[in-house]
Design a protein that fits this description.
Helix content: over 70%
Distance between the termini: 29 Å
Number of domains: 1
Order of helices and strands: HHHHH
Mean pLDDT: 75
Shape: globular
Radius of gyration: 17 Å
Structural class: mainly alpha
Low-confidence stretches: 146-155
């Protein structure tokens, strides 16, 4: 399970990310062009990615721990791993449907990345790979290297 110190760190990153996104929208009107590109890269690509990954990976760990102590699934480790991964991918997709309303290609792309990073985390327990993947995706999306879908960046 997640200890008290870890939960406080996760909460702090989420709050920093929310406040950062609010300040960015307040200062630049949600624009990610011109003078807003550097704050957007810092807030979305770095703070947002770390906070989001810490949240979802922590939820995956909690799901795994709950399933690990389930008496009905005691001897089926592979099934518990699959359930844990599917739960987090489902939660992630549900969370991101708000961002990608009407943009199924973008939603499919980020869901695919979540499947890959969830599988990686389930077997290695390394958060750094998931965070790095998320950072790279967000940085590329904001800098315009990845395609935009109807004006909404893949973040």
């Amino acid at each position: 399970m997640i200890d008290s110190k870890s939960s406080k760190i996760i909460f702090a990153w989420l709050i920093i990310g929310i406040i950062g996104i609010f300040v960015l929208n307040l200062l630049f009107g949600g624009s990610t062009s011109g003078s807003a590109i550097i704050p957007a890269l810092v807030i979305f690509a770095v703070v947002g990615a770390i906070g989001e990954e810490m949240f979802f990976l922590s939820m995956q760990s909690i799901t795994w721990e709950i399933l690990h102590f389930s008496k009905k699934l005691k001897s089926i480790k592979f099934i518990k791993e699959i359930i844990s991964i599917l739960f987090i991918v489902g939660l992630f997709t549900f969370f991101h449907t708000v961002v990608y309303v009407g943009h199924l290609a973008a939603l499919a792309f980020v869901t695919g990345l979540r499947v890959i990073t969830s599988i990686q985390f389930q077997f290695t327990r390394r958060q750094s790979i998931s965070i790095l993947t998320h950072l790279i995706n967000n940085a590329l999306a904001i800098s315009g290297v990845l395609a935009t879908f109807g004006g909404i960046f893949i973040v």
